[in-house]
Amino acid sequence: MSGLAMPKPDDATMRRRDEIVADMRIIVPGEGVVDAANSMRAFESDGLTAYRQLPLVVVLPETVAQVSRVLKYCNDRNIRVVPRGSGTSLSGGALPLEDAVLLVMSRFNRILEIDFPDRIVVAQPGVTNLGITTAVEQEGFYYAPDPSSQIACSIGGNVAENSGGVHCLKYGLTANNVLGIEMVLMNGEVVRLGGSHLDCEGYDLLGVMTGSEGLLGVVTEVTVRILKKPETARALLIGFSTSEQGGQCVADIIGAGIIPGGMEMMDRPAIHAAEDFVHAGYPLDVEALLIVELDGPGVEVDHLIGLVEAIAYRNGSTTCRISQSEQERLSFWAGRKAAFPAVGRISPDYYCMDGTIPRKELPHVLAGMRELSEKYGLGVANVFHAGDGNLHPLILYDANVPGELDKAESFGADILRLCVKAGGVLTGEHGVGVEKRDLMPEMFNQIDLDQQMRVKCAFDPNHLLNPGKVFPQLRRCAELGRMHVHRGQVAFPDIPRF
Question: How far apart are the C-alpha atoms of 324 and 124, rounded to whole Å?
Fold first, then answer.
């Protein structure tokens, strides 16, 4: 796994592998247990394919009771567990561990309830993101979060990573569209958070779980809100001679009080790759391309299109094309949705980053990335959610050239440091996983990290769920509660200790 440091395998667990596999077959009978090395290759990595590791065993449960029994079995025997959805994570969040059970939730693939009056869908975690929209679109509804991997990514994984997509600017991330979940704790206990109601009192544990990257529990059911499709949706395809002009146009659109349904941006390398791949009709003589979608009542959309067009020209746009049909609007998005695979045609490998910055810093950060590209001698294609400042630089490299992967990783780390320095954060929707784990101190001090770890300890005191992810060092929960003793006295000795 390259030079990535992961938790040391537990020798006692490794020696008991045959016994553990046999017990897993009792809990999950039939074809629900995979233990042959060749068969487990399909699960050795997630979307961050630079890191690979075979698990101890792969288990594919079909019922909540099976999930509960697997987790309780592992908890009682101090066996680590790595939850996995569809495996599209780009941060290594589902990277297996050599001594861990890989708990794959892909067999939980049914929609359990559709309630149009209350505008909710109850789905198992293995249902694909796009599958929810497909199930309700005949009644004019859809599920708003739409990551580019929506045809494959699962709703459970969306909850784990708090996924977004091109329309999250107006309609929110997964956290804004999930109403409730059923989950299983590491000790096997089944609990429910939220439900079909809009909100509830008490601590926002549902918010804690959304984006928790499999460290706190395993989701077995998700209740999401669905929305009515807008009456009208039209898009503008706007070209600029510099990325800085495009970035300023984004800031000016938001500053004018206009909240588009989606606002995406690509630079020249990404534009050319996408056009060659999809033939969407993108202009090839521009340095930056902005896609702005406006939706709502027809009269409102027409008015906003005029405002956005005027803002674009004030920022020096060289071309502005407005969709005249639904087919044309979809063609604008086709290139953006296919940008990642398209870039794969122009480079043997690419490394996808995920930093987020304040919108006003977009020109500065893009200029900084160009300087880093020259420093490392590696190309970069930029595709990003311009409206909310979520950047997805694609670093181009060749893994067959010795040292290029290491160089790409260093380049990516410097991009994320640049984002944090500009007032941003390490991740917008891909999660921390292993990719950004060791960069967490760039954004948080030790007190911050300890407080986050205490939340982890409240759910999983033995640190058995997805260890080695998110936190830069593996520590026992007991270490966080140590009391400092000075000259035989603890601090504040009059306070009762429990």
Answer: 38
